[in-house]
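A quick aside before the break. I want you to see a complete sequence-to-structure record at least once, exactly as it would be stored in a machine-readable document. Don't worry about memorizing anything.
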Amino acid sequence: MKYLFFILSFFALASAANADEVEICFNFGCNAHAKVEYNDEALAKVGRLLVEAPDATAEREALSFAVAWMYFYAGQQTPIWRDKPGNYDDSEYLDGRMDCIDHSTNTTAFLKLLETRGMLRHHSVLDPVRRGTFLTVHWAARIAERDNPQGQYSVDTWFFEPGRPAAVFPLRDWLRGAKPSLR
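That is the input. The structure line, written in tokens, reads:
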């Protein structure tokens, strides 16, 4: 029995060693933080979405779904599953709600993990981007095409519940106020 404990402990440690941790934030303005683990199996699921993308356009579409999956998985480990689209329907649950600062920070962290793992072949991850002034400020994650650094895009998850595909817009359109159709 004593040996069984050591064997199980070894496999648990080996499994944890193969996990990547991402720190996410929530509760508006990144007031709360939590670690989310993505093991090799979980990341392989995301990688399968991206590996088939033959060009930058296809990779952006795949990224929209990859980020959704990463949020869904994070919601299984943290209270962010309670988040509602936008900022105004979150009053029922205070713990787990996210504003655009939380969303842009988390999406950027997810994208950086994918980039570090070599899963982004056509894009690089940049710092989050802001549009608007004072009361109308909105943030989103940002990527750029590797072969065309001027080809920048916003990756915006704030409009949706966690686990829904991200809205990806050419940066110039997003800066002018583009938002997804919410039908």
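Two observations worth writing down. The first strand starts at residue 20 and ends at 26. Residues 20-175 form one domain. We'll return to this after the break.
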